[in-house]
């Protein structure tokens, strides 16, 4: 899929106008674009009355189901983020509900940590300073496979809305490190969504 063969993609959370005026938590919506701004996919959180209630009260701890759609509206992947009290987990599945992999958060007082898996096999870890915006995916030898970088989009938007941009670089950053497989790239996409929830939502704690 073109979504996963790019050397880099930009994931942009859509501005939630009810967040701006009322502080009302709406379903997450993202656009995924290539570096030239061409649309590759949408990531849409499932809506519904019960889910709306949980968004208001559980905030970033809530369960989230989302669908990754291509520009024609066809399902590419499904993302599931179960309810979490402390450490978050997020799973990504194919359109046929086959597990691709998952991302597990590891709580640390002064670090932002994740473990990334394809199936049951870990392929990368993230260990970023507490206020860091650059999340490097490192292999077992410490080589950088790629990274998720949170872009600053302007003071007013950062302050008043749940919006943000993430640049996912999915080619090896070092010549001695292998490139990521398509499955690993899909897990990296799910990781960006989890990072957005855990650290860059207005209600992240």
Question: Can you put this structure into words, describing what you see?
Answer:
There is one protein chain. With 205 residues, the chain is α+β, with helices and mostly antiparallel strands. The chain has one domain (2-200): Porin (Beta Barrel). The chain is 22% helix and 40% strand. It contains 5 helices and 12 strands. A 12-stranded antiparallel sheet has the order 9-8-7-6-5-4-3-2-1-12-11-10, with helices on one face. Strand 6 and strand 7 form a beta hairpin. It is globular. The termini are far apart.
- What's the number of structural domains? 1
Query: If helices are DSSP runs of H or I spanning 4 or more residues, what is the number of helices?
Result: 5
What's the architecture, going by CATH?
A: Beta Barrel
Uncertain runs are 17-24, 49-58, 154-162
Annotation, overall tally of beta strands: 12
Largest sheet: 12 strands, antiparallel
Euclidean distance between termini CA atoms: 35 Å
Strand percent estimate: 35-45%
Silhouette: globular
Q: What sequence of helices (H) and strands (E) makes up the elements?
A: HEHEEHEEEEEEEEHEH
């Amino acid at each position: 899929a073109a979504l996963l063969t790019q050397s880099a993609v930009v994931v942009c959370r859509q501005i939630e106008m009810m967040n701006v005026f009322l502080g009302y938590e709406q379903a997450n919506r993202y656009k995924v674009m290539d570096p030239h701004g061409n649309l590759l996919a949408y990531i849409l959180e499932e809506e519904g009355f019960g889910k709306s209630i949980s968004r208001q009260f559980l905030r970033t701890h809530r369960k989230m189901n989302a669908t990754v759609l291509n520009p024609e509206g066809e399902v590419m992947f499904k993302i599931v983020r179960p309810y979490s009290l402390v450490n978050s987990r997020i799973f990504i599945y194919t359109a046929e509900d086959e597990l691709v992999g998952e991302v597990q958060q590891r709580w640390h007082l002064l670090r932002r940590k994740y473990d990334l898996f394809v199936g049951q096999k870990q392929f990368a870890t993230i260990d970023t300073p507490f206020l860091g915006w650059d999340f490097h995916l490192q292999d077992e030898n410490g080589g950088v496979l790629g990274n998720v970088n949170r872009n600053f989009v302007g003071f007013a938007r950062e302050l008043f809305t749940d919006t943000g941009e993430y640049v996912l670089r999915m080619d090896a950053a070092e010549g001695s490190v292998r490139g990521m497989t398509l499955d690993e790239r899909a897990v990296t996409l799910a990781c960006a969504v989890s990072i957005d929830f855990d650290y860059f939502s207005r209600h992240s704690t």
